[in-house]
Amino acid sequence: MAMEWQVFCQDTIERTVVAGCFGSGGARGTQTYLDWLLQAWGQTVMVAALSLVVALVVGSIIGTIRTLPDSPMVVRLGNVWVEFFRNIPLLVQIFLWYHVVPVLIPVFADTPKLLLVVMGLGLFTSARIAEQVRAGIQALPRGQRYAGMAMGFTTPQYYRYVLLPMAFRIIVPPLTSETMNIFKNSSVAFAVSVTELTFFAQQAGEETSRGIEVYLAVTVLYVISAFAINRVMAFIERRVRVPGFVASTGGGH
To answer: What is the average per-residue pLDDT within 155-159?
Structure first.
Protein backbone atom coordinates (compact mmCIF):
# COMPACT_ATOMS: atom_id res chain seq x y z
CA MET A 1 0.00 0.00 0.00
CA ALA A 2 1.43 3.36 -1.08
CA MET A 3 1.98 6.02 1.54
CA GLU A 4 0.07 9.28 1.11
CA TRP A 5 2.13 11.81 3.01
CA GLN A 6 0.14 14.58 1.37
CA VAL A 7 -2.47 13.91 4.03
CA PHE A 8 -0.59 16.32 6.30
CA CYS A 9 -1.15 19.11 3.78
CA GLN A 10 -4.92 18.69 3.90
CA ASP A 11 -7.16 21.24 5.57
CA THR A 12 -8.71 19.70 8.70
CA ILE A 13 -12.20 20.96 7.76
CA GLU A 14 -12.52 20.94 3.97
CA ARG A 15 -9.91 18.19 3.40
CA THR A 16 -8.50 20.15 0.50
CA VAL A 17 -4.74 20.23 -0.08
CA VAL A 18 -3.15 23.48 1.09
CA ALA A 19 -0.13 24.76 -0.83
CA GLY A 20 2.97 24.71 1.35
CA CYS A 21 1.26 22.39 3.87
CA PHE A 22 0.78 25.18 6.43
CA GLY A 23 -2.58 26.83 7.00
CA SER A 24 -3.21 30.54 7.28
CA GLY A 25 -4.33 30.31 10.92
CA GLY A 26 -6.54 32.85 12.62
CA ALA A 27 -10.22 32.70 13.50
CA ARG A 28 -11.30 32.29 9.87
CA GLY A 29 -8.11 30.80 8.53
CA THR A 30 -7.19 27.25 7.66
CA GLN A 31 -5.40 24.59 9.65
CA THR A 32 -3.69 21.61 8.09
CA TYR A 33 -2.94 18.30 9.75
CA LEU A 34 0.72 19.33 9.79
CA ASP A 35 -0.23 22.44 11.78
CA TRP A 36 -2.20 20.27 14.17
CA LEU A 37 0.66 17.78 14.48
CA LEU A 38 3.17 20.50 15.42
CA GLN A 39 0.74 22.05 17.89
CA ALA A 40 0.22 18.65 19.50
CA TRP A 41 4.00 18.19 19.71
CA GLY A 42 4.24 21.55 21.46
CA GLN A 43 1.54 20.49 23.94
CA THR A 44 3.44 17.27 24.62
CA VAL A 45 6.67 19.15 25.26
CA MET A 46 4.87 21.61 27.54
CA VAL A 47 3.20 18.87 29.60
CA ALA A 48 6.48 16.95 29.92
CA ALA A 49 8.57 20.02 30.80
CA LEU A 50 6.18 21.36 33.44
CA SER A 51 5.71 17.88 34.91
CA LEU A 52 9.48 17.46 35.11
CA VAL A 53 9.81 20.71 37.06
CA VAL A 54 7.16 19.54 39.55
CA ALA A 55 8.77 16.10 39.81
CA LEU A 56 12.28 17.47 40.37
CA VAL A 57 11.26 19.98 43.02
CA VAL A 58 8.94 17.69 44.97
CA GLY A 59 11.08 14.58 44.46
CA SER A 60 14.21 16.36 45.67
CA ILE A 61 12.44 17.53 48.82
CA ILE A 62 10.92 14.13 49.59
CA GLY A 63 14.14 12.27 48.80
CA THR A 64 16.11 14.58 51.07
CA ILE A 65 13.80 14.37 54.08
CA ARG A 66 13.90 10.57 53.86
CA THR A 67 17.59 10.72 54.79
CA LEU A 68 17.38 13.22 57.65
CA PRO A 69 19.12 12.01 60.81
CA ASP A 70 17.16 11.83 64.07
CA SER A 71 13.85 12.66 62.34
CA PRO A 72 11.97 9.34 62.19
CA MET A 73 8.53 10.91 61.84
CA VAL A 74 9.59 13.05 58.90
CA VAL A 75 11.28 10.04 57.29
CA ARG A 76 8.05 8.03 57.68
CA LEU A 77 6.04 10.79 56.04
CA GLY A 78 8.46 10.74 53.10
CA ASN A 79 8.16 6.96 52.86
CA VAL A 80 4.34 7.20 52.85
CA TRP A 81 4.52 9.76 50.02
CA VAL A 82 6.69 7.49 47.90
CA GLU A 83 4.65 4.35 48.51
CA PHE A 84 1.38 6.17 47.86
CA PHE A 85 2.35 7.60 44.48
CA ARG A 86 4.34 4.54 43.35
CA ASN A 87 1.53 2.07 43.99
CA ILE A 88 -1.31 3.81 42.14
CA PRO A 89 -1.26 3.46 38.33
CA LEU A 90 -0.49 6.68 36.51
CA LEU A 91 -3.71 6.65 34.49
CA VAL A 92 -5.76 6.28 37.68
CA GLN A 93 -3.92 9.26 39.19
CA ILE A 94 -4.66 11.36 36.11
CA PHE A 95 -8.37 10.52 36.37
CA LEU A 96 -8.32 11.33 40.10
CA TRP A 97 -6.78 14.74 39.42
CA TYR A 98 -9.21 15.43 36.58
CA HIS A 99 -12.49 14.13 38.03
CA VAL A 100 -12.09 13.88 41.83
CA VAL A 101 -9.69 16.57 43.05
CA PRO A 102 -11.71 19.51 41.57
CA VAL A 103 -14.79 18.23 43.42
CA LEU A 104 -13.05 17.68 46.76
CA ILE A 105 -10.90 20.84 46.55
CA PRO A 106 -12.96 23.64 44.91
CA VAL A 107 -9.87 25.78 44.23
CA PHE A 108 -8.96 23.29 41.49
CA ALA A 109 -12.41 23.50 39.87
CA ASP A 110 -11.37 26.18 37.37
CA THR A 111 -7.82 24.90 36.85
CA PRO A 112 -7.01 24.16 33.18
CA LYS A 113 -6.99 20.42 32.49
CA LEU A 114 -3.41 20.65 31.20
CA LEU A 115 -2.23 21.80 34.64
CA LEU A 116 -4.20 19.01 36.32
CA VAL A 117 -2.37 16.52 34.10
CA VAL A 118 0.93 18.22 34.97
CA MET A 119 0.22 17.80 38.68
CA GLY A 120 -0.75 14.15 38.27
CA LEU A 121 2.24 13.24 36.12
CA GLY A 122 4.65 15.39 38.13
CA LEU A 123 3.69 13.95 41.52
CA PHE A 124 3.70 10.40 40.14
CA THR A 125 7.25 10.89 38.87
CA SER A 126 8.31 12.71 42.06
CA ALA A 127 8.10 9.42 43.95
CA ARG A 128 10.61 7.84 41.57
CA ILE A 129 12.96 10.82 41.70
CA ALA A 130 12.70 10.83 45.50
CA GLU A 131 14.01 7.27 45.52
CA GLN A 132 16.94 8.27 43.34
CA VAL A 133 17.80 11.30 45.47
CA ARG A 134 17.65 9.18 48.62
CA ALA A 135 19.89 6.55 47.05
CA GLY A 136 22.32 9.21 45.87
CA ILE A 137 22.66 10.73 49.33
CA GLN A 138 23.03 7.36 51.01
CA ALA A 139 25.70 6.33 48.49
CA LEU A 140 28.00 9.09 49.73
CA PRO A 141 30.65 8.25 52.34
CA ARG A 142 29.62 9.13 55.89
CA GLY A 143 32.76 11.19 56.15
CA GLN A 144 31.21 13.88 53.96
CA ARG A 145 28.37 14.39 56.41
CA TYR A 146 30.78 14.42 59.35
CA ALA A 147 33.06 16.87 57.55
CA GLY A 148 30.17 19.28 57.13
CA MET A 149 29.26 18.96 60.78
CA ALA A 150 32.91 19.49 61.79
CA MET A 151 32.91 22.78 59.86
CA GLY A 152 30.02 23.97 61.98
CA PHE A 153 27.33 23.63 59.31
CA THR A 154 23.75 23.14 60.41
CA THR A 155 21.81 20.20 58.96
CA PRO A 156 20.28 22.30 56.14
CA GLN A 157 23.68 23.80 55.38
CA TYR A 158 25.64 20.57 55.03
CA TYR A 159 22.85 19.14 52.89
CA ARG A 160 22.90 22.26 50.72
CA TYR A 161 26.67 22.66 50.38
CA VAL A 162 28.06 19.14 50.84
CA LEU A 163 25.64 16.26 50.29
CA LEU A 164 23.16 17.36 47.64
CA PRO A 165 25.70 18.71 45.09
CA MET A 166 27.47 15.33 45.08
CA ALA A 167 24.25 13.29 45.22
CA PHE A 168 22.81 15.00 42.14
CA ARG A 169 25.99 14.31 40.22
CA ILE A 170 25.64 10.61 41.04
CA ILE A 171 22.02 10.34 39.94
CA VAL A 172 22.28 12.08 36.56
CA PRO A 173 22.12 8.74 34.63
CA PRO A 174 18.86 7.55 36.29
CA LEU A 175 17.48 11.07 36.00
CA THR A 176 18.07 10.78 32.26
CA SER A 177 15.80 7.74 32.17
CA GLU A 178 13.14 9.51 34.24
CA THR A 179 13.25 12.55 31.98
CA MET A 180 12.71 10.35 28.93
CA ASN A 181 9.99 8.41 30.76
CA ILE A 182 8.11 11.55 31.74
CA PHE A 183 8.02 12.61 28.10
CA LYS A 184 6.66 9.24 27.04
CA ASN A 185 4.24 9.09 29.96
CA SER A 186 2.77 12.42 28.90
CA SER A 187 0.77 10.39 26.39
CA VAL A 188 -1.74 9.60 29.18
CA ALA A 189 -2.96 13.18 28.80
CA PHE A 190 -5.01 12.02 25.79
CA ALA A 191 -7.33 10.26 28.27
CA VAL A 192 -8.63 13.65 29.44
CA SER A 193 -8.61 15.17 25.94
CA VAL A 194 -5.41 17.20 26.13
CA THR A 195 -4.42 17.63 22.49
CA GLU A 196 -0.94 16.11 22.68
CA LEU A 197 0.65 13.71 20.19
CA THR A 198 -1.29 10.58 21.13
CA PHE A 199 -4.59 12.46 21.05
CA PHE A 200 -3.66 13.85 17.63
CA ALA A 201 -2.74 10.39 16.33
CA GLN A 202 -6.05 8.93 17.44
CA GLN A 203 -8.18 11.76 16.08
CA ALA A 204 -6.30 12.39 12.84
CA GLY A 205 -6.05 8.68 12.10
CA GLU A 206 -9.82 8.31 12.37
CA GLU A 207 -10.58 11.44 10.35
CA THR A 208 -8.21 10.72 7.47
CA SER A 209 -8.20 6.90 7.46
CA ARG A 210 -4.42 7.22 7.02
CA GLY A 211 -3.43 5.74 10.35
CA ILE A 212 -0.10 4.37 9.14
CA GLU A 213 1.19 7.75 8.01
CA VAL A 214 -0.16 9.53 11.09
CA TYR A 215 1.26 7.06 13.60
CA LEU A 216 4.61 6.94 11.81
CA ALA A 217 4.90 10.72 11.99
CA VAL A 218 4.00 10.72 15.69
CA THR A 219 6.48 7.93 16.37
CA VAL A 220 9.26 9.87 14.64
CA LEU A 221 8.54 12.93 16.80
CA TYR A 222 8.64 10.80 19.96
CA VAL A 223 11.98 9.31 18.89
CA ILE A 224 13.44 12.73 18.02
CA SER A 225 12.31 14.13 21.37
CA ALA A 226 13.66 11.20 23.39
CA PHE A 227 16.99 11.33 21.54
CA ALA A 228 17.28 15.08 22.14
CA ILE A 229 16.63 14.56 25.86
CA ASN A 230 19.27 11.82 25.96
CA ARG A 231 21.89 14.04 24.32
CA VAL A 232 21.15 17.01 26.59
CA MET A 233 21.38 14.85 29.71
CA ALA A 234 24.58 13.22 28.43
CA PHE A 235 26.09 16.68 28.02
CA ILE A 236 25.06 17.59 31.56
CA GLU A 237 26.54 14.33 32.84
CA ARG A 238 29.88 15.08 31.21
CA ARG A 239 29.93 18.60 32.66
CA VAL A 240 29.11 17.66 36.25
CA ARG A 241 30.91 14.32 36.56
CA VAL A 242 33.48 14.19 39.36
CA PRO A 243 36.59 12.40 37.99
CA GLY A 244 37.26 9.15 39.78
CA PHE A 245 34.00 9.28 41.71
CA VAL A 246 31.20 8.64 39.23
CA ALA A 247 31.82 6.06 36.55
CA SER A 248 31.09 6.93 32.94
CA THR A 249 27.88 5.39 31.60
CA GLY A 250 28.97 5.76 28.00
CA GLY A 251 26.01 8.03 27.32
CA GLY A 252 28.21 10.94 26.47
CA HIS A 253 30.17 9.30 23.65
So the answer is: 90
